């Protein structure tokens, strides 16, 4: 069955620390990979996406992610976090349009000012 | 316009009530989704519509009834809900090509009393 795993449930960092959130997906052929962010009380917003090509993708707000096919991973990174990055982060995968978009369990990121 | 608009934003209903949630997008997207999100949990897929036809029903109880009147609108009709159905209901739409992300609405916060 298609699935997405996020192993970090809650990450607490100080401002300016570097961030890496893990995401692994189950094999299912060609995949579309996403990271969404949900700020407190707000809707899901797309941070970045990978469909094909360069496995290192850059998104909004200084985030980037690397697709490593051999590890079925799509980890999210940011070199220096800010207090405003406090949010819930969801990794998601789909295998085509109008198919299931499956979300990981989410990682809550708390940033100490 | 990259908006998915959901109404109402908040809804309180009794267990014997009938109500409807509405979702609208004008991006020409032909795939539309309903998700349910409980507090501190990831969105869970309920239904997928592709070209106005129901393509995926994730074994959702019949007290939830989706409807897609046209390519821009998606409704979720609610009847005889239970308190455990209280959640944030998210609508999303996605373009027709394979490589495209889903855009999410702000959700309807539903409370069943």
General description of the model:
- The complex is a heterodimer of chains A (113) and B (113).
- Chain A is mainly beta.
- Chain A is built from no helices and twelve strands.
- In chain A, the strands form three sheets. In chain A, strands 2, 5, 6, 10, 11 and 12 form a six-stranded mixed β-sheet that branches. In chain A, strands 3-9-8-7 form a four-stranded antiparallel β-sheet, with no helix packed on it. In chain A, strands 1-4 form a two-stranded antiparallel ribbon.
- The N and C termini of chain A lie far apart (41 Å).
- Chain B starts with a strand and ends with a strand.
- In chain B, 35% of the residues are buried.
- The mean pLDDT of chain B is 93.
- The A-B interface holds A 32, 34, 36, 42-46, 49, 51-52, 88, 90, 94, 96-106, 108 and B 30-31, 33, 40-45, 48, 50, 55-56, 90, 92, 94-107.
Helix-strand sequence of chain A: EEEEEEEEEEEE
Tell me which oligomeric state these chains represent. Answer: heterodimer
Radius of gyration of chain B: 13 Å
Q: What separation lies between the terminal Cα atoms of chain A?
A: 41 Å
Radius of gyration of chain A: 13 Å
What is the makeup of the main sheet of chain A? 6 strands, mixed
**Strand fraction of chain B:** over 45%
**Biggest β-sheet of chain B, characterized?**
7 strands, mixed
Q: How many H/I helical runs of chain B?
A: 0
Would you tell me the overall average pLDDT of chain A?
92
Q: What's the total helix number of chain A?
A: 0
Structural class from helices and strands of chain A?
mainly beta
Output the keywords.
heterodimer, A: 113 residues, mainly beta, six-stranded mixed beta sheet, four-stranded antiparallel beta sheet, globular, B: 113 residues, seven-stranded mixed beta sheet, 11 strands, 58% strand
Compose a concise summary of this entry:
Chain A is mostly beta strands.
Which SSEs are present, and which pair or pack?
The complex is a heterodimer of chains A (113) and B (113).
Chain A: E1 4-5, E2 10-14, E3 19-21, E4 24-25, E5 32-38, E6 45-50, E7 56-58, E8 64-68, E9 73-78, E10 87-94, E11 101-103, E12 107-112
Parallel strand pairs in A: 2-12
Antiparallel strand pairs in A: 1-4, 3-9, 5-6, 5-10, 7-8, 8-9, 10-11, 10-12
Chain B: E1 4-7, E2 10-13, E3 18-25, E4 31-37, E5 44-50, E6 53-57, E7 64-70, E8 73-79, E9 87-94, E10 102-104, E11 108-112
Parallel strand pairs in B: 2-11
Antiparallel strand pairs in B: 1-3, 3-8, 4-5, 4-9, 5-6, 7-8, 9-10, 9-11
């Amino acid at each position: 069955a298609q699935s997405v795993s996020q192993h970090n449930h809650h990450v607490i960092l100080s401002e300016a620390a570097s961030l890496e959130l893990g995401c692994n997906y189950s094999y299912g052929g060609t995949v579309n990979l996403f990271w969404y962010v949900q700020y407190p009380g707000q809707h899901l917003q797309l941070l970045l996406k990978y469909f094909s090509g360069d496995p290192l993708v850059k998104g909004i707000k200084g985030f980037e992610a690397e697709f490593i096919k051999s590890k079925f991973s799509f980890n999210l990174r940011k070199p220096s976090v800010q207090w405003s990055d406090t949010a819930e982060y969801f990794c998601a995968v789909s295998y085509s349009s109008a198919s299931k978009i499956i979300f990981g369990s989410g990682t809550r990121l708390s940033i100490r000012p | 316009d990259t908006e998915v608009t959901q109404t109402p934003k908040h809804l309180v209903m009794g267990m014997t009530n009938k109500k409807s949630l509405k979702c609208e997008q004008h991006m020409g997207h032909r795939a539309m989704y309903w998700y349910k999100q409980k507090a501190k949990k990831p969105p869970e897929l309920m239904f997928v519509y592709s070209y106005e036809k129901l393509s995926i029903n994730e074994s959702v109880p019949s007290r939830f009834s989706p409807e897609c009147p046209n390519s821009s609108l998606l409704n979720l009709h609610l009847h005889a809900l239970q308190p455990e159905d209280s959640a944030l209901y998210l609508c999303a739409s996605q373009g027709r090509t394979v490589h495209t992300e889903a855009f999410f609405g702000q959700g309807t916060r539903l409370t069943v009393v």
